[in-house]
Write a structure and sequence with these properties.
This protein has 291 residues and is an alpha/beta fold. The protein has helices at 13-28, 52-63, 84-94, 105-114, 129-143, 159-171, 181-184, 194-198, 229-232, 255-258, 265-283, and strands at 41-46, 67-72, 97-101, 119-121, 150-154, 174-178, 190-191, 203-206, 240-243. The structure holds phosphoric acid mono(formamide)ester and norvaline. The site of norvaline has 8 residues, from α6.
Length: 291
């Protein structure tokens, strides 16, 4: 069976927990990484900008002995004359896995249907599962476990929010998104009251109000959901602040909160690297990779 990593909702909880356990172990071996991916190649495709996802997958693959080839939209025939089906079938003959950032989720699923190698979702407009795996790993490091914790989200309801909702069902944590009323109306796990969401939260999390590809979007309605010291004061004294980055300075979060001792944003960014290794090991297990 081909082991894609596209939707957290496709997995049973045990498999996701096993991936995270491996991520913690691989982090512990970061100065002596096991050469699990020797002779294996990962294609990395991007139709949008990326710093963390691109660097962490590239370094993850190489630290564990593998190779990468990076292609942006401008380098490929995909999007021009060549179909998704043809691209998937050709790439499957060259590399061992594909990591792809692609706006349209349906097209990523189409690529996976035609590929004979694993496809990893490096973010679509619908979800960002690798980010949330790193976030949960970071919460486990800081708070011991995520089970039963209260995670409160503020601002827009976007791809990162959706992956948090998917994860809450697998890892048994409470997730509430405080978002403007018109967005809350047709989405699960929402409130339009920021203070209600923040009250006694263990984790306060936000993301940009303007995602990639949304240039020109009006942001006025998001100001009541800005994460600032006043909002943080409603959370537990031990609450941590998270953001997948990049921050749009200083819209969705104020500088004092982002740079406070509660902020764990750079640990979160670092854990992208360790979690990518474990996700790759899961996806590449059919090639004989075993940890
Ligand atoms: N958080 C995240 O995915 O960052 P990049 O867009 O820089 O990859
Ligand atoms: N919601 C953001 C996340 C970036 C990592 C976006 O889609 O641009």
């Amino acid at each position: 069976m081909i082991k894609h990593f596209i939707n957290l909702s496709d997995f049973d909880a045990e498999t996701l927990k096993e991936i995270l356990k491996n991520a913690h172990n691989l982090k512990a071996q970061k100065f002596n990484p096991p050469q699990l991916f020797k002779g294996l190649s990962l294609a990395m495709m991007f139709d949008k900008l990326s710093t963390r996802t691109r660097m962490s997958f590239d370094v993850a693959m190489k630290q564990l002995g593998g190779h990468t080839i990076v292609m942006t939209q401008n380098d490929m025939q995909l999007g021009g004359a060549e179909s998704i089906e043809s691209t998937a079938k050709v790439m499957s003959r060259y590399v061992d896995a594909i990591m792809i950032r692609m706006s349209e989720h349906d097209k990523m699923e189409e690529l996976a249907r035609h590929a004979t190698i694993p496809v990893i979702n490096a973010m679509t407009d619908k979800s960002h599962p690798c980010q949330i795996m790193a976030d949960i790993m970071t919460i486990e490091e800081k708070l011991g476990s995520i089970e039963g914790k209260k995670v409160a989200w503020f601002g827009d309801y976007n791809n990162v929010t959706q992956s948090f909702v998917d994860a809450s069902a697998k890892f048994n944590f409470e997730f509430t998104a405080a978002v403007p009323e018109d967005i809350a109306a047709d989405k699960p796990n929402t409130t339009s009251d920021a203070i209600t969401a923040a009250k006694d939260a263990d984790v306060i999390v936000t993301d940009t109000w303007v995602s990639l590809g949304q240039d020109g979007k009006a942001i006025e309605k998001f100001w009541p959901y800005q994460v600032n010291a006043e909002l943080m004061a409603h959370a537990k004294d031990t609450a941590i602040f998270m953001h997948c980055l990049p921050i749009h300075e200083w819209e969705e979060v104020t500088e004092d909160v982002a740079k406070s001792s509660a902020s764990i944003i750079y640990d979160e960014a670092e854990n992208r690297l360790h979690v990518q290794k474990a996700i790759l090991a899961y996806c590449l297990s059919e090639t004989g990779v075993s940890i």
